[in-house]
Structure formats: C-alpha cells, structure tokens
UniProtKB/TrEMBL annotation:
Pfam family, one: Hydrolase
Protein name, per record: Haloacid dehalogenase
SUPFAM superfamilies the record matches: HAD-like
InterPro entries found in the cross-reference section: HAD-like_sf, HAD-SF_hydro_IA, HAD_sf, PGP-like_dom2
Amino acid sequence: MVDTVLFDIGNVFVRWDPRYLYEKLIEDKEELDFFLKNVVTLEWHTHHDRGRTFADGVAILSEQFPQYADLIELYDTRWTETIGDIIGGTVDVLNELADRGVPVYALTNFSAEKWPDFERDNAFARRFHGVLVSGAEKLVKPDPAIFALTVERFGLTPEKTLFIDDRDENVVAAKALGMQGHQFTDPLLLRRELEALSLL
C-alpha cells in the first residue's frame, strides 16, 4: 500500500516555460520560435539543472550567439518570469496530504542557484518533508541515480511511494526503481488517484 508521495515541481505545482519571458521581449513570432528552438533550448537549460551556474551558461551561449547576447543575459536576470501561474489544485492536494500526516517529498530538476528564492517566494514549497534539488546533486531526472539517491536520502520504500511528474520518461524511471507512478496532467485526475489509494 502506498503511504508516501514524491512530487515533481515544475508543471505540477507551477507552470514553467521560457516562452513566458521571451514573448515579452521578441515581438516577431517566427523569430521567437527560432530563438526558443535553437538558442535558449531545453537542452541548454538542463545544464543548469545539472549544476552549471547561470553565469557560465549565459557566457557559453552568448559566445555561440553573440547577436542574442542581451536576450540570453535576461534568462538569468529575469529568470522568475519564466515561471507562470501556480496550479492551485495541486497545492490544495499537497496541503491536504500534509495536514493528514502523509509524508510528502519533492524531487525536482531545478537550478540550485535559483531554488532558494523560489522556495522563499512559494509557501507550498516549504510544506515538503524534504526536497532533493537536481542542481545541488549534479544529477537530473530521468537518470536512475537521482531516484536512487532520493530513496536513500529520505529513507523511502519505493513500493510504498507514489511518484508524480508531468514527464513520461521520469515516471517510467521511477517505476523501474519499484515506485508507483502518476503522469500529471490535471489536479482533479491526481486527486482521484490519491483517493483511490486512500491517501485523500
């Protein structure tokens, strides 16, 4: 029986997309699409989640695309604008679980450099019993090593842990370690899953 819940953060509790920032800065849609597909890419961003500093990331990318250096710099200085709305239904679920005494943890691909401000600014992030931030460990999901580290760090029993993430490959990796998995799409569907498991 599942008795512990392990959450992802981005696109489970808050919407996240670099487009939120750059659509304010690049008026031409074709140029915006080009910029997000070829310059500020998810692959480049993931290096920050793996521990690279934003200063280093900005310097590397600015050297490759000097014509976009000013825009690339804003990825660091206006980082908070890549974060969109809070997904209130998921926050409600977290609060209810915590209030019921269910152990709740988080495993997030997130820059160690940006996490402290995010945690400070979002009260829900302080409700977890523990958070493993990829950038601090220099590992990212779906690497099996980060799941194994999470189990060890928090003393989890994989078979009794439900892992919730918006990305299928991360859910698959958690299941390979023996966890239950839920690919997040909607807070109501998540609530129904937790009710079925008698956690809510």
